[in-house]
Task: structure prediction
Amino acid sequence: MIIHLATDHAGLDLKNSIKAYLISKNYEVIDHGAHDYDPQDDYPDFIFPCAKAVAKDTNSRGIILGGSGQGEAMAANRIKGVRAAVFYNGPDEIIKLSREHNNANVLSLGARFMSEEEIYKIINIWLEEPFGGDRHQRRIDKLDQ
Result:
């Protein structure tokens, strides 16, 4: 599975750590940036290319980061075919449900609210949880009409 990554300056170091972690788990990773720290950069410049890549390849997933992950998810969700779920700590069940019920193909993480270890745990849950299909697919189909 290909995992697309993107962040602005707020998640740069964490994105780089996640990239190394995913590669160590034998995932193919495509990094859409940011590649350098620039406190004036704008998250849509990185999130849109990532989200478009995920929408184009339905077998891929995306992980995006920001301070809270909220704006990044809003940007990603503007791309037809993307279903970005926001997580910045809370019950793990939220991540499972984002996959089981919503077939989330982008995970938006709040870099300022989670430790690296917590993020790796959540990423593993999210990547392993299957989509439930059936009635949930019907609802997703309505989103893409």
About this structure: The beta strands are 2-7, 28-31, 61-66, 84-87, 106-110. The chain has a mean pLDDT of 95. The two ends are 26 Å apart (CA to CA).
